[in-house]
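TA notes, week 10

Several of you asked for a full example with nothing omitted. So below is the full record: structure tokens for the whole chain, then the designed sequence directly under it. When grading your own attempts, check the secondary structure regions first.
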């Protein structure tokens, strides 16, 4: 498939054929494509944990029972922001490692990680397979980190379930252009554009959605953010305490 067509036709899949096994060749193609993603200064400040072990995947589902595909997919990848590698470099040159003094190193590493993740999604679809990005691994970030034996300076960002879909999905509509695309400077827009999208998504009628798009995020951001992530970042030396 052409790259542009793959991206235009992106769909998230949560139901996979449990009898389908990803070949080692397919897995390596996905990993190679992922690793060719752009990164700041070619720093490649991420790592990819390939989780094949059923027991580990069962424990991940126990933490996140709403994501059974973590177990039922062919393979589960965990993308982590990795500043341990550059800490090793700093130690080698006997230099200070001052990433805890500001947010920019963490933003850089998370950006690198997200770019690698997206390349993996595109490669998966180019192979005729499907995937779903799993952000809820941050819900129990310390427990996930312990389960995967991650060292300090490493943050789980998102997982990726990959497999052969057994339920067809439709391409989900996106927000109106004027709410997302800006030329030269940020341009404000009327709230009616968001109401228009609410109406579009209601007509799309995805079964798993029980609220208006706008109300879902109003509710979500009215709650206190996940403080486990803040504490994890402090304990693992991303921030100074």
């Amino acid at each position: 498939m052409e790259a542009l067509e793959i991206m235009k036709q992106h769909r998230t899949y949560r139901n996979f054929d449990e009898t389908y096994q990803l070949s080692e060749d397919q897995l390596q193609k996905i990993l190679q494509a992922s690793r060719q993603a752009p990164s700041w200064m070619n720093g490649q400040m991420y790592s990819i944990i390939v989780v094949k072990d059923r027991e580990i995947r069962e424990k991940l589902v126990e933490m996140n029972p709403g994501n059974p595909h973590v177990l039922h997919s062919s393979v589960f990848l965990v993308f982590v922001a990795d500043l341990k590698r550059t800490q090793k470099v700093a130690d080698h040159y006997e230099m200070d490692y001052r990433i805890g003094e500001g947010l920019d190193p963490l933003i850089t590493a998370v950006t690198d990680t997200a770019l690698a993740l997206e390349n993996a999604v595109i490669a998966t679809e180019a192979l005729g397979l499907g995937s779903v990005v799993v952000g809820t691994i941050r819900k129990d970030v310390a427990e996930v980190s312990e389960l995967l034996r991650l060292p300090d300076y490493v943050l789980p960002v998102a997982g990726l379930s990959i497999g052969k879909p057994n339920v067809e999905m439709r391409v989900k509509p996106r927000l109106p252009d004027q709410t997302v695309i800006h030329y030269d400077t940020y341009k404000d827009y009327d709230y009616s554009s968001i109401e228009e999208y609410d109406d579009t998504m209601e007509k799309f009628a995805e079964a798993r959605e029980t609220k208006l798009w706008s109300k879902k995020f109003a509710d979500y951001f009215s709650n206190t953010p996940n403080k486990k992530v803040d504490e994890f970042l402090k304990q693992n030396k991303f921030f100074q305490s």
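The longest helix spans residues 104-126. Use that as a sanity check on your answer.
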